[in-house]
Design goal:
This protein has 342 residues and is mainly alpha-helical. It has 14 helices and 2 strands.
Length: 342
C-alpha cells in the first residue's frame, strides 16, 4: 500500500510544473507543491539506487545516488550565480555538506540501527572533505582580514578549484577500485535490471532538478513572508531541498537495514558537493556574466570542518550505532540555530 501511495504521489511533479508555468501560482503555493513533489522523487531515486546497488555493490551504489542526487544542487547553484546571488550559492553548498554529514548520516544511523559501515571507503571521503575545507581557507581568509577585490579573490579561486577537481577524480577512482575489488554479489531475483535502474535514476533526477528550480524560484518570496534571511534560507532550506534525493534515499535504504549503502550515500554526497560541486560551479561561472569566488564566511568554514570531524569519529570503527546518529542529529540542529543567529 505504501509503495502504491508513493508511486501515485509522483503526480505532484506535473501538478507543481503546471502551477508554475501554466497557472502562475503565488510563491507560497509553489513552495508547498514543490516540497511535496520532492518527497516521492527522493523515494524513487532511493529505490532505483538500491536496485542498482544489487548489481554494483553499496560503494558504487552510493556513488550513483550521490551523483544523480547532486545534479539538482549543481543546477540550483548555477541558477543562483546567474541571478548574481553568490552568498546564496556559498550558503547552499555549505548547508549541503553539513546536512549530508550531520542530518542524513545521523538519520541513516538512527533508522538503520546497529550495522556495518565501510570505514575504509568513508575515511578517504571524509579526508577529502577536510582537505577541501582547508583549501577553501586560501580564498576565504583574505576576505576575513581585509577587503580584496572580487577580481583578486577570483585569481585565488581558480587554482583552488582546479586542485579540488583533481582531488575529486583521484578519490573517486580510488574508491571505485576499492569497491570493484571488494564487492560483487548476486542480485536478488526481484531486483530491477541495471539498465532499468539507471533509466529511473535519470528520469527522477531530471524531474527533481525541475521541481527544485520551482521551489528555489519561490523561496525568496516565501522567506520574506515568514521573516527568514537570505543566508538561513540558503544554508538550511535550499540545501535540504537540493539534496532531497539523497536525504530521502538514504533514510529509506537505512530503514530497510542496509546501513552500509545508506552511510555511503550520505558521506559520498557531502564529499561530492565539497570537492566537485563547489569548484565546478566556480569554474563554470567564469563563462557567465557573474563570477563566483570561493571566499566563504567563518561560520561556513567552521561548520563544515566540525561536520567532517564528527563524521570521522562516528565511522572510524566501521560500525553504525543509534546513539551516534542522535549525536549527529543534535549537532545539526545546533548548527541550524547558529545559522539562524548569524
Amino acid at each position: 500500500m505504501a509503495r502504491r501511495i508513493l508511486w501515485a504521489s509522483l503526480a505532484f511533479t506535473p501538478v507543481a510544473v503546471a502551477a508554475r508555468f501554466v497557472f502562475h501560482a503565488n510563491a507560497t503555493v509553489l513552495f508547498v507543491l514543490a516540497a511535496v513533489a520532492l518527497l516521492p522523487l527522493a523515494w524513487l531515486i532511493g529505490e532505483a539506487t538500491e536496485h542498482a546497488a544489487e548489481h554494483t555493490g553499496p560503494g558504487v551504489g552510493g556513488f550513483l545516488n550521490a551523483s544523480f542526487g547532486n545534479a539538482p544542487e549543481l543546477i540550483i547553484a548555477l541558477f543562483a550565480v546567474a541571478d548574481n546571488l553568490p552568498n546564496v550559492v556559498r550558503g547552499s553548498m555549505t548547508g549541503s555538506v553539513v546536512s549530508n554529514i550531520l542530518l542524513v548520516l545521523g538519520a541513516a544511523m538512527i533508522f538503520g540501527g546497529d550495522g556495518r559501515v565501510d570505514a575504509r571507503s568513508l575515511r578517504w571521503q571524509i579526508v577529502a572533505i577536510a582537505g577541501a575545507v582547508a583549501l577553501l581557507l586560501i580564498p576565504s581568509v583574505p576576505r576575513w582580514v581585509g577587503n580584496p577585490s572580487d577580481e583578486a579573490l577570483l585569481r585565488i579561486t581558480v587554482p583552488v578549484a582546479i586542485i579540488l577537481l583533481v582531488a575529486y577524480i583521484v578519490v573517486t577512482v580510488r574508491n571505485l577500485r576499492i569497491h570493484r575489488e571488494a564487492e560483487r554479489g548476486e542480485p536478488r531475483h526481484e531486483a530491477w535490471s541495471l539498465r532499468k535502474s539507471i533509466a529511473w535514476l535519470a528520469v527522477a533526477t531530471l524531474a527533481t532538478a525541475l521541481v527544485s528550480e520551482i521551489l528555489v524560484h519561490s523561496l525568496q518570496d516565501f522567506g520574506d513572508a515568514v521573516g527568514l534571511d537570505q543566508f538561513f534560507i540558503a544554508a538550511v532550506i535550499v540545501a535540504i531541498v537540493g539534496n532531497a534525493a539523497e536525504h530521502g534515499g538514504a533514510i529509506v535504504i537505512a530503514h530497510r537495514g542496509n546501513t552500509e549503502l545508506a552511510t555511503e550515500i550520505a558521506v559520498t554526497s557531502g564529499m561530492q558537493v565539497a570537492v566537485f560541486v563547489v569548484p565546478a560551479v566556480a569554474l563554470i561561472s567564469l563563462a557567465m556574466s557573474h563570477h563566483l569566488t570561493l571566499a566563504f564566511r567563518p561560520v561556513e568554514i567552521a561548520t563544515m570542518a566540525l561536520a567532517a570531524a564528527l563524521a570521522w569519529l562516528v565511522t572510524r570503527d566501521g560500525r553504525s550505532r543509534r546513539w551516534e546518529g542522535w549525536l549527529l542529529f543534535s549537532v545539526y540542529f545546533a548548527v541550524v540555530a547558529v545559522y539562524f543567529a548569524s
